[in-house]
Amino acid sequence: MKFIIATNNAKKLVELERILNPLGIEAVSAKEAGVVLDEVDETGTTFSENAFLKANAAFEKTGMPAVADDSGICVDALGGRPGIFSARYCPELCKTDEDRTQRILDELQGVPEGQRGAHYTCAICCILPDGNKLEIEEICEGTIGYEFIGDGGFGYDPIFMQGDKTFAQLTAEEKDKVSHRGKALRKLKVALEEYFKNNPKG
User: What are the structural domain ranges in the chain?
Assistant: First the structure.
């Protein structure tokens, strides 16, 4: 069965495809589906609300079951910022992922190691063929480093530490095992298996 992935973020699309395809789901981009997904106004106040807005917009436009996620980084010393604004943090000064990541490092100058806790959150919404939805949320705990390390991943991965490595230093397989998105998609797999068991025709 084909599921449309409701994102225009190319790197996030690759990550979602990599995790979903082995589950027997043919994850397709909007381009592959022959449609253009408009940018959704993320008016939700939580990751879950924004994930639903994106998935529902794709479902209504294409009629295909849709998967969307909303994710971001929450830094303890910044009161949980940037949170749901991770992709558009400090827009007046920050235009790229690198700008936003450097902004976090700048804001944490002088904050000692024991107070640099952070977590990634991923909320996934899956709109099923019958219009019902599955909603899942997971987190990955870590800390914020002191400099950019690694050239993998995307977003804030070069400063998000898991043990002695950043997410940007992990292989795709290593990251999937521990990441917020990997955890959430494994839960989605279980939920989808249960759904298709009870709805064999989809």
Answer: 2-198
